[in-house]
Amino acid sequence: MTSPLPPSRRATAMALAPRPSRALRPVPSPSAAAAALLASASPLPASRFLQLHAHLLRTGATPLAPAAASAFLSLAAASLPSSRALAVLRHHLTPASVPSTFSCNSILRSLSEPGALSFLRRMRGLGRRGNAFSLAIILKPCCTLAHARQLHANVVTDGHLRDALLATSLMRSYATCGAGDSAHKVFDEMLVKDAVAWNVLITCYARDKRTKDTLRLFDEMKGGESEARPDEVTCILLLQACTSLGALDFGEKVWEYAVEHGYGGELKVRNSLITMFTRCGCVEKAYQVFCETPRKSVVTWSAMISGFAANGFGEDAISAFEEMNKSGVAPDAQTFTGVLSACSHSGLVDEGFRFFDMMRCEYQMMPNVRHYGCIVDLMGRAGLLDEAYQLVVKEMKVAPDATIWRTLLGACRVHGHVDLGEKVIGHLIELKAQQAGDYVLLLNTYATVGDWVKVAEVRKLMKENGIQTTPGCTTVELNGELHEFIADDDSHPRKAEIYGKLDEINRHLRIAGYVPNVSSELHDLDSEGKECALTYHSEKLAIAFALLVMPQRRPIRLAKNLRVCVDCHNFTKVFSGVYNRLVIVRDRTRFHHFEGGQCSCNDYW
DNA sequence: ATAGGGTTAG
Known about the structure:
By secondary structure, the protein is mainly α. The protein has 32 helices and six strands.
């Protein structure tokens, strides 16, 4: 009869079978036979190994002869948990019985990171330096800065800098402990810098949010003296950097390079490109790339769905989701994040709840914090504030994060729900996550119900605690140059023209029915004073400037560091109709496309 | 002789 297991499984089963008789047999010492026996032994259960160890000590078989010691220590490292193994190793490592480099490496492989490092130190102290393998083994899990530094020293003194893989591994270790500068130093020291080394360096910069340096590296890599040229991984990393910078022009240059060098068909590159376009507000370009991508993965679909969502095209996001289902690609958690955020950004309340149910029932997925965040937003829109609060504190299976509370706080402001707003800020404080913007939301909530006494209280509280609000700031990109505006800005060289233009725009918009929304102004001014303060918000100044300098028919692209305020939102909406201009505003979380007096996002205020 | 190590999509 043949065994039911395939040959490979049979071998594993045999290895797993206990072999007590051999392990407990008295070990003659010192003898080559003992070494051979130990060397051939597979890892033992810890208890059995300790029995063997005790037996050796009892029978006076120690100190072991060098060959036997090598084998015995390897067996110890393989059989015992790291700390336990280390104690045994310490006991048996003597100048007379340092295992061979090969054995040392197999011991290193069995130990966990701190143990391995201390063993390496010990063996080096006993004159066994180890080789590049030894360092590579420890570098793999190395994740503390002090350890990385020690290994770096070893790499240098042992002359392994020529080994590109080892050096890159060291860079990675530095990068994971947040020491980007040290990683850079290793890179500088490297004798041969290949593309992967460059890519790791780029990853370091990206991780440190040094996005502009990241872009610089691309040019350096293309034209530098180094042999390495950007590969598809480089393109991916750069497209990601462009995504976070909103650097559309640079992103397109990277794509051009990718196509020229034969990386244009790489799915990962295309997926990064789709994201880059959507996060620069170019949904059409993203969609074109998406359509021209033949074998779309769940990542491709999700990128497009989230891209539609972030730009306020909720219906398109939903149809993409349906099309995805038809094409047979299964959605995952991130796909649902995209769909749900599409519903929340576009105010599609019923659809949102439908997808939330679909996700849980049809796909048996556990919603995560982000999913709940969308649902809380939807419930806020539907005016179900107390229900949303109950959901967060009672029903959610995951711990609520600051974003969830902030979403709820935003809803409190819209609905003037002061009591809940106070509770929510309490939760934010409990999480030690309260930001200036949260106090502003609370303050807004009081302002909405006209409770100026409380407004003053919050203001005082903020002052006492030294909470600084971030000044609103809007940037316009013009021929690759960034023009920055803050409220009541008077630093721009063309300020007279800009203010003149803004006054003219204001007159035209009022005729068209624009009414300043004074609830956006936080100060307890009289209503005329409020109008004045609103008039020169940074976004309006930026629009006036853009109108002055940008040729007709080109979209006006703005980027804001805060959320668009209600009044500016209204203003821009009416502006896009009266002046017949497309205005694309990127704020902290999404894009607003203003066209023909409408906005793509269905924000509720 | 044997053994080992790096970057990457939503």
